[in-house]
């Protein structure tokens, strides 16, 4: 009966009810008809027995032959078997059989009944005639006669007629059942059709097609069911939309975070991981989902930390170093996620990359050491010469002048270093709003200002400065800072080039970039130094740089100005032939 279609169930049950009802109707009606038939026949037999009783009233029991003949003729005429039996059960006369061949009839049920109550009726098989009969017996006790008059007739014809009637009834019943089945099928379809439509609609909802509505039915209950289903679908749609929106927001937040976030279940399996977390450990986010953390990240310290987090109510923190896929220093914060009362849903682990901060701290430490060192040398010299002067050299006019010159040179160097440092820190920290303002500037103007600034040195060194510019090239830069950067580059070119050489300031467009170059015919830089010359205080030849007034900060300043102006800075150099410093702006 399970998984049966409603129409089948309705149809079969109605047909079953109809079949049972029709069978019962046929059974009881055929029984009633049969009963009625036999009651009629019994009444007829009784009337005939009364007639026989009247006729034989004029005979004595001893006139057996006359009685027998009378029975025979009466029997023929009424188409009835007539039997006369005495009180001992001996047959005296019979319309169909010779009484001499007949056994005692004292055991026949109708005879026994007649002897007891005056009349008896029975329907049974006749052993004398070997066929079924309906018997009526009547006790006659008048005029000294004690006689049982029994009349009967065969029931075969009656039973045949009844049988035919039953067949007719069965046929009628069958036709009725077929008609009922047909009607039933039609009605069941009418009932089930809207339910099927609703079922299809509900299946569509189950597949997620929540926008398609279930058609409303004209049947009251089904109509309200369809309405409820549609309302439910609309609500689910809204909720799904809200949940999806929230989820997307969450994903967007998590994926835009620079901190790595991992959500773990209570066994340490990774439930979700944002891109930053996956990147930190060199995986794609999807690859680590549903895997154990200890399986994906073989880091004893981290795994111990996660175990502690899962067993603690507090937010815990630790710092770990990771060496693959790259060296990272991570600050890890872990907190347990509580679920239902007393159970743990898992933990959230947040990784913050401290590598840059740590490196910057290192750089800062180095910088402080470098600055101290750079300042210490001229100060020590100044102190030394001042002491020498104080200790009597002041009177030695010739030497005193020389010492004062040296002191002045070191003081000027101190001044330059301090100026450069201040400039560098100003540029680095974006202290002034000026630096952020990028304006369209003609490159020709930039080059002119740069050359004006270096006029003195170029004349002094007898070096020719040429320009090669695509006319009308315009750049969006912070003019003041860019001139500063170009002056540093031109100043270096002048310092590190031989007398009477040529320096070219070049500007041209290449695809979607504008390129500025400062090319000299100077000493050049060895390849091993190329990467480091932009670091603060880095000088290829410390002594030479100092002699010509270098601080080792010039290129560092250029690098920072390039970054503010969104330009790439690179250098090309060949020993003995010269160097080209190149600034590339994407436009
Ligand atoms: P400095 O004040 O010593 O010039 P910079 O930061 O400007 O410091 O330059 C760093 C180093 O790079 C210099 O010491 C020098 O050795 C090298 N350098 C810079 N520009 C040139 C150039 N045009 N030709 C050769 N070497 C250069």
As a whole number of angstroms, the C-alpha radius of gyration is 64 Å
Number of domains: 4
Strand content: 15-25%
C-alpha end-to-end distance: 78 Å
The CATH homologous superfamily name of the largest domain equals: Histidine kinase-like ATPase, C-terminal domain
- Mean pLDDT, all residues: 89
Describe the largest sheet: 5 strands, antiparallel
List the ligand species.
adenosine-5'-diphosphate
Helical content band: 40-55%
Broad structural category: alpha+beta
What oligomeric state is this?
Answer: single chain
CATH names the topology of the largest domain as Heat Shock Protein 90
Please write out the topology:
Blueprint: H1 6-55, H2 64-78, E1 81-86, E2 91-94, H3 109-117, E3 119-126, E4 131-140, E5 147-154, H4 156-206, H5 220-256, E6 260-265, E7 270-273, H6 275-280, H7 293-296, H8 300-310, E8 316-322, E9 328-338, E10 344-353, H9 355-390, H10 397-428, E11 439-442, H11 443-461, E12 464-469, E13 474-477, H12 479-495, E14 502-510, E15 513-519, H13 527-530, H14 542-547, H15 554-564, E16 567-574, E17 578-586
Parallel strand pairs: 12-14
Antiparallel strand pairs: 1-2, 1-5, 3-4, 4-5, 6-7, 6-10, 8-9, 9-10, 11-13, 14-15, 15-17, 16-17
Helix pairs in contact: 1-4, 4-5, 9-10, 10-15, 11-12, 12-15
């Amino acid at each position: 009966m399970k998984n049966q279609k409603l129409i089948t169930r309705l149809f079969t049950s109605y047909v079953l009810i109809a079949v049972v009802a029709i069978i019962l109707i046929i059974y009881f009606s055929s029984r009633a008809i049969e009963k009625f038939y036999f009651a009629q026949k019994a009444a007829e037999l009784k009337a005939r027995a009364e007639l026989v009783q009247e006729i034989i009233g004029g005979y004595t029991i001893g006139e057996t032959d006359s009685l027998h003949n009378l029975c025979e003729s009466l029997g023929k005429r009424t188409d009835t078997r007539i039997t006369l039996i005495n009180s001992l059960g001996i047959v005296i006369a019979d319309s169909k059989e010779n009484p001499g061949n007949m056994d005692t009839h004292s055991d026949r049920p109708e005879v026994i009944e007649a002897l007891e109550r005056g009349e008896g009726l029975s329907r049974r098989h006749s052993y004398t005639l070997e066929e079924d009969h309906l018997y009526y017996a009547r006790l006659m006790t008048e005029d000294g006669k004690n006689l049982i008059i029994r009349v009967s007739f065969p029931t075969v014809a009656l039973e045949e007629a009844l049988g035919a009637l039953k067949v007719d009834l069965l046929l009628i019943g069958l036709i009725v059942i077929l008609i009922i089945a047909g009607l039933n099928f039609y009605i069941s379809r009418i009932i089930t059709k809207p339910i099927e439509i609703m079922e299809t609609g509900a299946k569509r909802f189950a597949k997620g097609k929540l926008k398609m509505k279930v058609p409303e039915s004209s049947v009251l209950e089904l109509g309200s069911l369809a309405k409820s289903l549609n309302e439910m679908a609309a609500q689910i749609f809204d909720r799904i939309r809200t949940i999806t929106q929230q989820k997307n927001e969450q994903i967007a937040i998590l994926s835009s975070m620079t901190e790595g976030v991992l959500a773990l279940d209570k066994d340490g399996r990774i439930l979700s991981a944002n891109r930053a977390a996956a990147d930190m450990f060199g995986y794609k986010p999807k690859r680590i989902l549903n895997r154990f953390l200890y399986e994906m990240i073989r880091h004893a310290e981290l795994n111990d930390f996660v175990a502690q987090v899962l067993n603690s109510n507090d937010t815990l923190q630790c710092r770990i170093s990771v060496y693959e896929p790259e060296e990272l220093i991570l600050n890890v914060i872990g907190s347990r996620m509580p679920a239902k009362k007393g159970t743990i849903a898992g933990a959230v682990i947040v990784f913050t990359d401290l590598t840059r901060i740590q490196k910057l701290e290192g750089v800062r430490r180095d910088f402080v050491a470098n600055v101290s060192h750079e300042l210490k040398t001229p100060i020590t010299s100044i102190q030394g010469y001042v002491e020498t002067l104080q200790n009597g050299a002041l009177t030695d006019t010739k030497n005193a002048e020389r010492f004062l010159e040296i002191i002045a040179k070191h003081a000027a160097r101190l001044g330059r270093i301090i100026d450069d440092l201040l400039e560098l820190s100003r540029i680095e920290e974006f202290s002034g709003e000026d630096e952020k303002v990028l304006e369209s500037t003609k490159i020709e103007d930039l080059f002119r200002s740069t050359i004006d600034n270096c006029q003195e040195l170029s004349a002094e060194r007898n070096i020719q400065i040429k320009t090669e510019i695509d006319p009308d090239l315009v750049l969006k830069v912070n003019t003041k800072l860019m001139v500063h950067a170009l002056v540093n580059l031109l100043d270096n070119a002048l310092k590190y080039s031989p007398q009477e050489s040529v320096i070219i300031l070049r500007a041209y467009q290449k695809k979607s970039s504008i390129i500025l170059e400062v090319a000299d015919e100077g000493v050049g830089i060895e390849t091993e130094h190329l990467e480091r010359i932009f670091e603060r205080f880095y000088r290829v030849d410390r002594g030479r740089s100092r002699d010509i007034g270098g601080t080792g900060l010039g290129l560092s300043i250029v690098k920072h100005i390039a970054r503010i102006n969104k330009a790439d800075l690179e250098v090309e150099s060949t020993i003995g032939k010269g160097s080209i410093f190149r600034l590339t702006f994407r436009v």
